[in-house]
Amino acid sequence: MIVQISSGQGPAECEIAVSKLLEALKVECPDIEVLSKHHSRFSGGLTSVMFETGHDLSELEGSVQWICKSPLRPYHKRKNWFVDVSIIGEIEEICRDGDIRIEKFHSGGKGGQNVNKVETGVRIIHLPTGITVSSTAQRSQYQNRQQCMKRLNAILNERERKAKGKQKNDAWKEHTRIVRGNPVRVYEGLNFKRRR
Questions:
Q1: C-alpha to C-alpha distances, 5 to 18, 45, 111, nearest whole angstrom
Q2: Using an 8 Å Cβ cutoff, are 33 and 53 in contact?
Q3: pLDDT means per 10 residues in the chain (196 residues)?
Q4: Which of 105, 140, 97 is nearest to 122 (CA)?
């Protein structure tokens, strides 16, 4: 599961809360692997962080509240800081060599005596996506297979590139959206102790 914690448009205290929440979650889920993070202008803060974990954190989606006197502005009256937790849709895994079915067929057309006797045409079906590519341009089955794999890889790489672009776009949309009130979790104090 890919998760993003974001301070949205919140002040520096929210950026500190992002960092503290990440540390608290690392204790809960030791397998957390940080994929990207954006540091705040202030030491120890993060405007956003995206990480991957095998744990199911779907109940954490929403806003998380941190109740604490501002560590940066001692005379500030506000004590409630909110950060957003979003589950980012995962990129579909694309298999490059496994999960394919290869079919051979007679090529037909020009090419000499071989053409209708030998199965030189190749069709490759990528089973997870249903993408089919075929080649009959070359005179040998091996060359046609190579040509098909080249085409299939180009198609799959393009799909992956588009999926990554969509994931980044989704992550940015989530970064700017924070719903205050009705938090899914509440933490208190500088030691970031979980209240509920």
A1: 6, 12, 61
A2: yes
A3: 87 93 95 86 86 90 92 87 84 60 73 55 86 83 83 72 68 59 88 86
A4: 105
